[in-house]
Fold each of these.
Amino acid sequence: MASVRKSRSESLFIRYLILGAWALFCLAPVLWFLSVGLRPRVEIITPRPIYWPTFSLDAWHMIWEDWPMAKYLRNSVLAILGSVLIDLVLAIPAAYSLSRYTYRGRDDIGFYILSTRMMAPAIVAIPIFFLFRNMGLLDTIWALMIIYAAVNLSIVTWIIRSYMLDIPKELEDAARTDGASDMRILWEIIIPAVLPGIITAAVIAMIFAINEFLFTLLIASTPDAYTMSVALANFTGGSDGVIYNAIALVAFLAFVPVFLVVVAIQKHLSRGLTMGAVKG
Amino acid sequence: MSDTTPSRAGAASVASARVRPVRLRRRSRRLKVWFPYLLVAPAVIYLLLITLYPGIYAIIQSFYAVKFGPWRPVGFDNYIQLWGDYQFWAAMRNTLIIGSISLILQCFFALLLAFYAYRDPWVQGWRIIFLVPMLFMPSAVAFIYKLAFLDGRVFSDILIRLGLIDYNLAIQSSTWMSRMVLIIADVWQWTPFLFIIFVAALQGQDEEVEEAARLDGASWWSIFWNISLPLMKPVIAVALILRAIDITTMFANVFIITKGGPAFGTETISYFIYRTGFKSFNFGYASAASVIMLILTIIIAQVVVKRAFVSSRS
């Protein structure tokens, strides 16, 4: 009995050692980067790094006063919300079709939608760049919206499809015998039942849209359409070098809302991240 | 402009067609058969425009020399040149090296952490802490690591303080150390992706089997190795595939931290396409590289991904 207890406390020690070490590895760079955001520029790149800097809000003033940060923020929010809206409008009927009907070619269509997730942005970047240039959409948030929606459509469709597959067929059949049309069933029964799935899909699409980098870099070549993600890469003040403290604050500005939303849906996260393949 | 008009017309007709079947449903059985296709059509058309159209465009462009001005047909020249281009092969090799090391490390750490975390009373808390790196924008993560390893030399400084080295590491001029920075940044940011999925899979497993094995005196480790892990195989496959896709398309870190250097030692295939296309303006050549990537993607999608997603569903 004693030996069992001993091995148990030992394994607890190892457990917390490993989990604690990883937590430190996760958070130390984040906290250090926060300290970079809250220090004056002269204390960032020094012969030896400074770990206890003087507190300064220089960067905070800089991002709002010297840069059109409010505009970048607005661009990001509009492009992302617009893209999620496009995704939901397209994905909900598609997911309904893929999950509740049996027809020829259904699985191939479903797999085609899934396979677009595998397309590297670099493969389609050049044609898309020319397409948008010919349409006069370069440097507009409309182009970003269209692209983000395309990047995420496969994920959103598959997540919602996975949640729709869980709804018992009887629920639908009961409504159908009452004479409800397919569209009414979708609108009044299916959508309310899969609302958690729809929200999960929207949040995951939002994360990936915020993270999108290559397309945004190519499409948004002037500050008119910069998003936060790409604005960051351009915070290099020429001869001044990279302005790290401003970058750090913008990074946290984008992080906080995403973090809060993700914590709110964390139960559904594993299912969302695997496009419904894993039920958490 | 001309190539966009038919697509718009197509989208419009589908939009109007979607409204019709509701009204005519009772009158026409044929429409009932088409109804599911009509529901899925807008999404498929949208994706075809964004993938198939560019794919065909890239294939055509890859047979031309496209710089500024008119396209000049060159046959297979771009492909022949690509075959002999050591930078292209270096990019392929780098993508493979950085990607596979990164993926193996992430999978190892995620399994280890999931194994310890899933039966911990504070699993919720661990999950939130471990999630943090994943929620930063890739460009932000790239700058964290650029500052820590290159510009700010924090990494070197810590090693000096620990007495492991006595001068600053010249990370920028070492291929392997530059690759290491990219790998660490990726492992740091994306291990939680796998961790969250693995924890969910472990938590979803039948507790009774575990309990029975436990009463027979099996250790947690042997339960994990002999029971949980085999059951998790389909989940691990799906998660690793999703991760592998994103790793092979790694771009922001390369763009910000190393710019592909030193001497093309960290240039990934995505960065290669970006550089030949948008820095050298050699669009036809970059398109040829895109087409090769596209072919590889289709093969991998058909062989690996289809199987993984189909098996995970059952």
Amino acid sequence: MDGTLLAGFAQVLQPGVFLIILGASAYGLLIGSIPGLTATMGTALLVPLTFFLDPIPAIGAIVAATTTAIFAGDIPGALLRIPGTPASAAYTDEAYKMRQNGQVELALGVNLMCSTIGGLVGVAILIIAAPQIARFSLGFSSYEYFFLAILGLSCAILVSNGPRIKGVLSLCAGLMLSTIGIDVVMGIRRFTFGDSELIGGISIIPVLIGMFAITEILRKAAAPSDLPPTPPLRLRAAVSGVMGTLWKYKGGVARSSLMGSAIGALPGAGADIASWVAFALAKKFSREPEKFGTGHPEGIVSASSANNAALSGAYVPSLVFGIPGDTITAILIGVLLMKGITPGPMVFVMDTGLVNAIFAVFILANLLMLPLGLVAITASRHLLSVRQKILFPIILLFCVIGAFAANNTLFDVWVLLVLGLVAFVLEENDFPLAPMILALILGPLIEENFMKSVIKADGNLLEFFSRPIAGTLGFITFAIWGLMLVLSLRRHFMTSRRGNTAT
Amino acid sequence: MKLNDAVLGTIFVLIALVVLFQARTFPTLPNQPYGPGTFPAIVACIMLLCGGGLILNGVRSRDPVLVLSGWIRTPGAAGRMTAMVAFVVLYILFSKQIGFPLLVPVLLTALLWVMQVRLSMAVPIALLTTGAIWMLFSKLLMVPLPLGLLTEVIY
């Protein structure tokens, strides 16, 4: 903790900024605890408001809201067996079993404490690792950036669920969308079909809201369901016994927090994957694996540390390279770009104030989560009694106005609707959306660095591998492609053989 | 609402072909074969390959063209989803003429009513929400939400 981090705190603790972070934390708790509202959707809904804020409060709002949302997703999981966000799905059954054993308060108390610890470990790694990597990557040229971005997208496909071919198509759709408008090399109009609104390109806010909020609203509109009432929870029971449980499984907390941040840092892999992996590992390393599935806190401890750690870990590649680690940071990078800040190693040199403020926001948001989380646990009855039939029409109105507000044009509302419907159909058909949003954000970066490199190399593609780091990155990229090809061929082979033996 | 892979594959292939065709018309850098069309063309080629693969998958699987998912058979599901889309379209078409403060309460009440909220609750909720959003966006964030018919009344 040096003086610069203190300077970051000084910026974040200004009354205006602090109030925004506090409000965003409360908003995150609400979003997370209502099933159907995910942390990503909550972030997308925040974007139109952050448009009007300074960079630091804008980032603060997003960081605070997502931190608390990932924890709050555990609340309906334990109470109703419905995960509030996908990141809680891994241990929903286990937590619900604890409720049936009369330990629901303990489960939620452990969730809260582990989320905070995991979050803080993730921040510590972010604070230690990010500036080092940034210093290392200051000498990167367009070749390295091109390969890094390609590597990021390949990784997003590798970890996405669903068939890989659909992941690649979703990625191509995102890249395609990013090429609409004036091109970076010669400044000519591309794919505008004579429409003057399209010259500036597809603006990112309506796309984000459409893809992550409209899709969810449509799904909820089809089958609205009000949640069954839940019992009142006692605060005392949520506090006592938590420390004992944590101490018992301290190894799991440490392992999962570290692993969670590492998984979060992989592009495309976010909090939900981290918590699945952590839960599986906890079971594997456990001394009493037979207790899993009976309301045993060990897996919950691990997985709920990992998902919050992943949230912070995702900021490492996002801040250092501008390559998002998950969908939330993809949105955050979009917000930063709108504010004229291009994330990259230069930010760590030129704008240390901003970087330190981001670190401070993370620490503050995780600390604020403790008291606010306890309030949310005791108020969970009321949080969960929000009527979905009323909530979703209001969110829809907010989406429409939010999409309009950024550029004050109704064209963006069309973009919202069309992209929302397209994303809905794609998701219904098992297309993962994460590669698409990553590609949309990374598209301009990839194209610019690709064109720069090609022009520098005078068309000689071997130049792409001539620098040591670029060559290594390129090799890793090809290795991942090879791995994906082998994996899908093997799956194809296995299924066709199984098909043959069946007939 | 699961479509056969071949249907979506065809759509992707068509988009890729249009992009390839368009990209050929773009100029290139002097003395180099590259230009604004290079990158879209590469993406379109990948899309073409994967779209083709998807068509093959779909044809081979012999799945029906359209399978409706379980939730769409919930009574009134299609109606409620259409209402959500209609809400957005009607806002786009009429917000400028009629104005935010007049149009939104009506639209929102109607939408809540479609969602089976009682009118005695829907009307106050719609009015309150409209007021809150107006305060937030128009007064606090200075977004010029359209006044429409009210423009002449106020000015």
